[in-house]
Amino acid sequence: MEDCLFCKIAAGEIPSTKVYEDDHWFAFRDINPSAPVHVLLIPRQHVKNILALTDETNKNFSDFFLVVKKIAEQEGLGDNGFRLVINTGAEAGQTVFHFHAHIIGGKAMGWPPF
Ligand code: 5GP
Ligand code: ZN
């Protein structure tokens, strides 16, 4: 197994506040939330980021947006909306190199975010 923080969280070896799980996905609350709702959605399979995806690993991503939708609705974000952020690579601010999508909501947000 990869020596990876998010692999260990998905495996339950490091505690987290679970929000959702199924065969391919695990979602938990960000330890340093940027908004009232800040959930991280990760694949159980270790994929570094979008740039590391292959035809093979992409098979487990086919339901990605439906899982995002399910979590957003479960978190009460269905009426006012939410932001989906996937930092990819160092310049974008990716600090944990296991693919993760930030699902952020519960307050009005500005754009651009930088
Ligand atoms: P990135 O900057 O890579 O897009 O996002 C990494 C996110 O992971 C950050 O928002 C950070 O707060 C969160 N994070 C880092 N370590 C942990 C941890 O041990 N537990 C949880 N729940 N979140 C973490
Ligand atoms: Zn990993």
From TrEMBL:
Domain of life of the source: Bacteria
Chain positions of motif Histidine triad motif: 98-102
SUPFAM superfamilies in the record: HIT-like (SSF54197)
Residue ranges of domain HIT in the record: 5-114
Molecular function GO terms recorded: catalytic activity
Active-site residue list: 100
Family annotation (Gene3D superfamilies): HIT-like
Protein name: Histidine triad (HIT) family protein
Species of provenance: Allisonella histaminiformans
